[in-house]
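BUG: 3D viewer hangs when loading the predicted structure for this chain

Environment: internal workstation, default settings.
Expected: structure renders.
Actual: progress bar stalls at 90%.

Input used:
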Amino acid sequence: MDGTFLKGKARGQLLVAIGQDSMRQFYLIAWAVVDKETKSTWTWFCMRHIESNWCSKWRGGQLKKLMWWCAWSCYEEEFKDMLRQMGKLSETAVRDLLHYPVEKWCRVYFDTVCKNGMVDNNFVESFNSWILEARHKAIIGMLEDIRIKVMNRLKENEDTVRTWKDEFSLDCMLLYHDFRDIAHGCTVEFNGDSGFKVTKGEDRHTVSLHSKRCTCRAWDLFGIPCPHAIKAIQHTKGDPLKEISWYYSKESYLITYSYKLQLVKGRKFWKVEDSHAMEPPPIVKMHGRPKPNQDTLPEVSLSQLFNIEFADDEEDPQIKHLIPSERETRIEMRKRLQKNTGTRIIPFVGDSTGASTSKDLPFSPRKKKSQKRAATSGNQLESTKEKKIEKLKVKKASASAQN
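Structure tokens produced before the viewer hung:
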């Protein structure tokens, strides 16, 4: 869920609930105009926002890289390794990062039901750019524009999936091929039943083909066989492609986009009862001193600002320059050959949904200093009031004497 400010005469915010399809594109679920964001509307954490807050204090490129690698970690031992590496650069930076609940931004503690390991809001930024022009219109005009854009998008995406040459989405196949390349550097041991011990570097993982689980949690989390699972399946002469989750299939994608928005008659046909009439959100005074009126440049989209040419669909930009690419950094690093020692055995963790809680982390969150001021008594308030009045009288008398 995310919110974006309206730019028309009627101020307020557009709150949107957005999902993601198997091509990692946004899928709009619901949207509504509200007066402002409140605690009752939404509470969430996103690695992109944590990064902007955390990096305002810690700007080192290596620290930022390790921060993202912490978020991308899939099992706790790997997460702890990243924290220790970051701690060698700055223990305070690690403790500041752990101030944010790790269950909200680190894959290690995500549940594995949705088969999605996203830790950022890249696709939300893409949606905000998609409706940039509509946000400048009046509320009804804006909502109509969004409805029409969503209606057309559902039809266009359905037509696109029918052109797929493979049974699974392109994004899914890219990750699968990366995992298959990493699997070449793994070694496997088989117990003769369904249990496999697969080693990559110092970590030895257990793979269960019956339950489709691996202790690295990547298979559970993404629904795509991880490198260890691929190595185990290949050992049995099986086909790893058959173990990819149905969520990535063409059939699933077509079902997702089979629900369409229906046509709506023009405004002159709208019949609104007095009891159902809606008013625009009330004007809310913003916090802080009002900004002075000044000539400003017209708002432009990110594509114009950074002079980026988006391929294929100009109305659906994939804003990937804001967040580092996991595929070009972490996954490429994992493809490098390592000496397989298997000295560290990784166990299964998590409840029935795959989620778990953090424990025994090498660093503890940094405690924030309390900024609460002491209570002010009635006598102190009265004394302060009298002092202010006295100062005003002195200023007034001084001004009269000068005149």
